[in-house]
Structure formats: C-alpha cells, structure tokens
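Milestone 3.1: sequence recovery, worked example.
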C-alpha cells in the first residue's frame, strides 16, 4: 500500500469525528453510470430535459421513462466494496456521518445508518398535489407516469436542478461537516451546489480534507490530500489500517 493511503488510515485512527461525502463515482463500480465525464449520463441526456421541475411539467412521461430505466438498472445492482467499507468505518469511528448525493439507496442497502441523503431517493415518490411521500419499488413501473390515489401526478422524490434541498437535510449536512476532524470526499466531481461546499466548510473549520477520485476535480487544488484511484479499492485499504490495533 502506498504511503499516502497508509497515512490517511493512521489519521482516521486518531480522529474523533469523520464525515464522508459521496457522489456517483462510489456507485460506478456497482455498474451505475455517473453523470459527468466521458461515460456519464449527461453525455447522452440533457439535464434540462430530465432533471428539472420544468422538464417534469412539460413531459412527465419522458421524465418517468428515464427514471424507470434507471430504477431497473439500480434494482439489478449491489453495493460494492466502497459501500461496505463505509459501513465498517461507521462501526469503528466514534462519531461518523455519511452524506451522499446519490439517490440509488445502495449505502442504505449496504447497512449505513448515520446517513444523510442530500438529493433524495429514487425509491420514493411524492404526490404533486398532496406532497405526501411513499416508498415504491415496482420495477418496471406498470403505468407511466404513475398517479396518486387523489389523481395527481407522482414525481420521483429527488432534488432536481433549481430546487432547494430539504432544509432539515441541509442543516444536518453542514452541521456534521463543521464538526469533522477528517472529511473524505469520494467519487464526486464537486460541481453541484450546495453539496460541493461541504468540503470547503469542513476545511475552514479545521478538518483534514481527503479526496478519493481517479481524476482531479473542482476541489482538488483545495484538499489536503488527493488519493488518485477507485473508491472500491482505496476505501477497503484505508479501512484495513483503521481496523488494525
Ligand atoms: C470515481 C469512480 C470510482 C468515477 N471511484 N470515484 C452556485 C453556483 C453555481 C450554481 C449553483 C449554485 N447554487 C446552486 C446552483 C445551481 C445548481 C448547481 O449546482 N449547478 C452546477 C452544476 C453549476 N444546484 C442546484 O440547482 C441545487 N439546488 C439549489 O441550489 O437550490 C437553491 C434554491 C434555493 C431556494 C429556492 C430554489 C432553489 C440542486 C442540485 C440538485 C442536483 N440533482 C442531481 C440529480 C438528482 C436526481 C437524479 O439523480 O436523478 O444530482 S444532478 C446530479 O449531480 C445528481 C448528483 O447527485 C449530482 C452530483 O454529481 P456527482 O455525484 O458529483 O457525479 P459526477 O458524475 O459529476 O461525478 C462523479 C465523479 O466520480 C467523477 O469525478 C469521477 O471521476 C468519479 N469516479 N468512478 C471514485 N470508481
């Protein structure tokens, strides 16, 4: 194991509070496409056609077809070694929080408990009229677009561009970031706000910020350490040091 990875493991051993921010790259090794980059969803689809409230208002059927396709892909996927390593990390570190931008539910499926889902969850639907939220795991959907018993359209319970994140979720995420001794940002391009602010906030409050990503991102120049590689390889390595007496 290289010395930078080993050093992060040792630093985590001494930390009281560890916060991890994850993005689509953490689920890439489970076969779920990321958004940006050469293989990303935004190469093939336009966010303004599929991931905005205006797009849903214009063509709910198209938006739901895309989400139905993604639900089918996610339903076939399993958590990978990165998800599992984070579950173990939570069990070892005295104060741990996992903040994810992912809507695929794989962290929860792996067993993460102290989890803040910033952008919602693809397995929940929200009634446009009543604002009630329900779990729905039907794959594929029998009727597109799905409707509530009240007759109104249901929408995916996710956060689209131009929509605010839930206040409670956002407050929780910033609070844990502010109290972190070590902050890991894993598998995110760190382009989407407000999530991308979290590593900067943590660093400003004195956290040691580590980025795990095969490529450089918007925040690489500002982190304390960039471990260049796949989350599914590096997180288990870090965990192996953290678990040693
Ligand atoms: C690996 C790997 C491996 C690969 N291991 N790594 C300030 C400045 C500028 C703009 C804004 C601003 N504030 C707000 C905005 C607008 C906008 C925004 O940020 N735009 C930017 C893109 C410019 N933000 C918003 O609109 C947000 N809302 C908001 O701020 O509201 C304010 C408001 C207040 C009051 C009233 C009204 C409004 C909402 C953002 C919602 C984002 N939604 C999406 C879709 C969610 C639903 C869905 O999935 O369908 O969230 S967009 C998409 O991007 C998704 C992701 O969660 C998010 C982040 O993407 P992520 O996870 O970083 O993925 P990628 O693909 O970008 O990166 C993957 C990385 O993994 C890469 O770096 C790879 O190298 C790496 N990788 N394999 C480790 N094996």
């Amino acid at each position: 194991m290289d010395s930078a990875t080993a050093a992060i493991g040792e630093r985590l051993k001494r930390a009281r509070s560890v916060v991890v921010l994850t993005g689509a790259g953490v689920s890439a090794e489970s076969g779920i496409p990321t958004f940006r980059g050469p293989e990303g969803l935004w190469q093939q689809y336009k966010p303004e056609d599929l991931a905005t409230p205006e797009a849903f208002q214009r063509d709910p059927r198209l938006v739901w077809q895309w989400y139905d396709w993604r639900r089918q892909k996610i339903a076939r996927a399993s958590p990978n070694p990165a998800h599992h390593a984070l579950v173990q990390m939570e069990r070892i570190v005295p104060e741990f929080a996992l903040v994810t931008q992912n809507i695929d539910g794989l962290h929860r499926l792996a067993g993460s408990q102290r989890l803040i889902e910033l952008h919602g969850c693809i397995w929940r639907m929200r009634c446009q009229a009543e604002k009630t939220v329900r779990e729905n795991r039907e794959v594929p959907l029998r009727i597109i677009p799905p409707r509530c018993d009240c007759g109104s359209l249901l929408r995916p319970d996710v956060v689209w561009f131009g929509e605010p994140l839930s206040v409670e979720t956002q407050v929780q995420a910033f609070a844990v970031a502010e109290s972190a001794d070590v902050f890991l940002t894993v598998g995110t391009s760190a382009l989407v706000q407000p999530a991308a602010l979290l590593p900067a906030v943590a660093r400003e409050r004195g956290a040691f910020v580590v980025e795990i990503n095969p490529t450089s991102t918007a925040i690489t120049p500002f982190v304390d350490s960039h471990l260049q590689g796949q989350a599914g390889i590096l997180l288990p390595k870090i965990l192996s040091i953290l678990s040693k007496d």
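The first strand starts at residue 17 and ends at 22. DSSP finds eleven helices and nine strands in the chain.
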